[in-house]
Write a structure and sequence with these properties.
430 residues; transmembrane helix; mainly alpha; cell membrane; MFS_dom; Growth Hormone, Chain: A
Length: 430
């Protein structure tokens, strides 16, 4: 693939991989740690997940603005250095065995993480052509699936062998490697600073809110973009539920004595499913419209999540999760390849700045609801799966009614712009 000839893309690709992989390992091992030490209080594991999503409330209006107004390369690199420093503090706080302090460090580290991906995604858009966006989305999804498969498995192995401290060390090393990879990139100024150079003293709370509002207006005015961004809110609900439900299912229903390993098998099954689905999606992306790669997999996903509530067999549960992963792969490729075509490069950071808050809001709401209702009001975990399935099926209906029309309108607009560019005379200065 020609995309691998772009050294900057390869380095950013692996930088994002190491950054996310270490975070995933740390997140999973902290959940195991809390469930082991506070098995009578499953809400602790849910609150730990909330520490990864709630910081969005503090920084949601800044992340996209920072990615658009400042040097995107420096923003992404400095996020890694800061998270590495906070991880060192987290390592020390474990010896104090203070749950509030650990939660606070996790909260701060997550807040810094929110600035990384809008900056990194905007850099990727600036160094690729439109024809390479879908390829990049497919490759990103495939490698994400690989680290999901091995990352969570390694996290479980580390927790069983060297414990939570070993997982934090892996977390620290991942951020360091990611920072050095980003530093080694040679990215043109036009991609790093598409809106020109801005000084920190030129920024204010008022200007940040104005830029954040501009991103919202830009999304609302583009109906197709607004519909796609709404999809991220739904993905946040799924992410929030899948962050804790598989662990609860294994610990309290399917495998109480070996829940750590089977919870990691859930991630392995989902990861292999994503890997398979991403490979298939990358191959067929050019043969189908993006909306077709979204609508039908969403329907199948909703039906399969509903089926998860019925199964009482671990093997069947993991097999269904594998198929769900296969469905999610093409959906992510479709959205990942579609968004960069729709969004202007100068506004990519601000649009990305809205995506993460919506996902984290949905994830936080989901985790908060689960923490309140389980097991105090809803004793049977199966009903939580039924509720999630119902939401996904409603999204299928919504997308089936809106996406085909909006996709057709977007294609017509693109063809019109291409004809105008081809008919425009080539005027050379004398």
């Amino acid at each position: 693939m020609k995309i691998f000839q772009n050294k900057n893309f390869v380095k950013l690709f692996y930088a994002a991989l190491f950054s996310q992989m270490g975070t995933t390992i740390g997140n999973m091992t902290f959940a195991f740690y809390l469930l082991d030490h506070f098995s009578n209080q499953p809400s602790y594991a849910t609150f730990a997940e909330l520490m990864y999503s709630l910081p969005t409330i503090l920084v949601f209006f800044l992340v996209g603005v920072v990615a658009d107004r400042f040097d995107r390369k420096k923003v992404a690199e400095n996020c890694d250095w800061i998270r590495a420093g906070l991880t060192v503090i987290l390592f020390g706080s474990l010896f104090l065995n203070s749950i509030p302090l650990i939660f606070f460090i996790l909260f701060l580290r997550s807040a810094v993480t929110k600035f990384f991906f809008p900056a990194e995604n905007s850099l990727v858009q600036g160094i690729l052509t439109k024809e390479q966006y879908a390829q990049a989305a497919g490759l990103n999804q495939m490698l994400f699936s690989i680290f999901m498969v091995f990352g969570v498995g390694i996290g479980a192995a580390i927790y069983k062998t060297v414990g939570i401290h070993g997982a934090v060390i892996v977390d620290f090393l991942s951020f360091i490697i990611s920072a050095f990879l980003i530093r080694s990139c040679n990215i043109p100024t036009s991609a790093r600073l598409p809106n020109g150079k801005v000084k920190w003293n030129e920024m204010s709370f008022k200007s940040s809110l104005r830029d954040f509002k501009d991103g919202f207006i830009y999304i609302i005015k583009n109906r197709l973009l607004a519909v796609l961004v709404f999809g991220f809110f739904i993905f946040g609900i799924v992410n929030g539920a899948f962050a804790v439900l598989p662990m609860f299912t294994m610990k309290y229903e399917l495998s109480p004595n070996n829940y750590e390993w089977y919870a990691s098998f859930f991630a392995i099954s989902l990861g292999f499913g994503l890997l398979t689905g991403s490979g298939i999606g990358t191959l067929i992306a050019s043969k189908f419209k993006p909306h077709q790669l979204m609508i039908y997999p969403i329907l199948i996903t909703g039906v399969l999540i509903f089926f998860l509530g019925f199964t009482s067999n671990v093997a069947v549960f993991l097999a269904v999760v594998f198929i769900i992963g296969m469905c999610l792969g093409p959906i992510n490729i479709a959205i990942g390849g579609w968004l960069p075509k729709i969004v202007h490069p100068k506004l990519m950071g601000r649009v990305s700045g809205w995506i993460d808050p919506l996902m984290m809001l949905a994830q936080s709401l989901t985790l908060g609801i689960i923490a309140v209702i389980f097991p105090q009001f809803v004793v049977d975990i199966d009903y939580l799966y039924y509720g999630m399935a119902a939401i996904i099926l409603l999204v299928f209906i919504f997308y089936a009614l809106t996406l085909p029309k909006l996709s057709k309108a977007f294609d017509l607009k693109e063809k019109k712009l291409k004809r105008q560019e081809q008919n425009q005379p080539n005027i050379k200065s004398v």
